[in-house]
Each structure stands twice: as structure tokens, then as C-alpha cells.
Amino acid sequence: MSLVKKDYKKITTNTLLEMKNNGEKISMLTAYDYTLAKIVDGAGIDVILVGDSASNVMAGHETTLPITLNEMIYHAASVVRAVNRCLVVVDMPFGSYQGNSKEALSNAVRIMKETGGHSVKLEGGSEIIDSIQRILTAGIPVMGHLGLTPQSIYKFGTYTVRAKQEEEAEKLITDAQLLEKTGCFAIVLEKVPAKLAKKVAASVSIPIIGIGAGVDVDGQVLVLHDMIGMTHEFNPRFLRRYLNLYEDITGAVKKYVSDVKSKDFPNEKEQY
Q: Of the CATH numbers 3.20.20.60, 3.40.640.10, 3.20.20.70, 3.40.228.10, which one belongs to the domain with range 13-241?
């Protein structure tokens, strides 16, 4: 039985709010290229996040910090060209919005104009509120991101669960309410205790999309390459692998190598 309560032809920021109000969970995955984005959109995903996780997944960096604005624009434009139905959210990379709200607006405008994306995502709460406000004045939808914020990894020093202490938990709720009040249309909540995430989702009227934040939020997001098993070294508790493409692709490449070496490929039907 389908749990989809309404057949949405096109997902917008308003659709996500409607979904929360109707009790329908929001599905979100990352994508960074045309081919996979086309598959993901066609399969019925609600939101594609062009994440700065491309820094890790596509470029092999240890953190999300090195990826540039130009590189994010390249990935996002590739994804947008593939999409017919879902909402596309583009991560603003590290250094493109912190500390200078005018620069943040300029960079957000570049993302919207040069990619065709539908919104941007920024990490942080009260400390970046000036940048969020200025971006919103241009009519650009903003998704927030609280909890574990990977762009601040050197500040935290670890990727462990955030907001286990009462003081940090209270700040998280306050920041979520501040982001809502400022005008964010949704918030990603990463690696926080499930009970706290449930509390946050109940304290705001905008959708809370979790990653490692339990089931009592308004939606879920995973990195596509982790979910389909193309990566295999990364094994956090919150990750469910729906495929094991690492093994499948490895096996296919090995078979191809073997067939080329043995002259089995190409055969007579595979040549002109």
C-alpha cells in the first residue's frame, strides 16, 4: 500500500510544509551528477540535495571544506538538468556565507542564476543569521542545517553525536525556532539524539529532515552513494544500505578485464 497521501506533480517549498501538516514523511537524497539525479528524480524522491558532501564522495577529500563555489555550481547545474519533479537544494560551501552577509547574498544569487536550483542550504544557527536574512531578502528560499555541521568539523574535532548535553540541546531548539522565525522553509538535523529531534520537530511548524536523528522528524536524508553501497568504508549507525554496488561494480569490472584479456569481448555480434 502506498503511503503517499497526494500525487504531487512538482515539489516546492510549500509542498514540504503541506506534507508536514498532512503527516506525510519527506524523502531526500543527495545527487551530484546528471545520470544519477535523473534516476533518483524518476524514482519519486521529494528533494535532491546537491550536498557539499561531493567534496568527499566525488573528489575524495577528507572533509567538506575544500569544495569551492564554482565546483558546487558545476554539480548543481548538472543535477538540475536532470530533474522534472523534485525540489533541488544546493549547499553553500564553506567560506561562501560565513562572516559577510553581502558576500553570502552574492554567492547565493550566483548559485540560483547559474544552476537553476530551487533553494540553498546553510549550516548554523544564530551565528549566521545575518547571512540567512540577507539571502531571504532576495527571495531565495533557505534550508537550515543544525546538529552536526560538517563544515565546523575542526571546531568540534569529531563527527560524534551532537547536543547530548542540556546546554547544547537547548541552543539547538532555540536555533531551530530562530531559523523558522527568520524565514527558513525547512531544517536538516544531523546526528542528534532521537528524543531531542522529536522535540525540535514538535517545536517548529517547518519540516525537520533528519540524518541520524530518529524517526520522529518530518523526513529523512542520506548520501546516495552510501545508500546504494558505492562507498563501503563509511558505516555509521544511521545508514541503511539498499544495494551493494561496490561489490557489483567491482565484479563487473573484473569480468570486463578478464573478457578483454581472453579476447571474449568483443564477440562477432559486438563488432561491425
A: 3.20.20.60
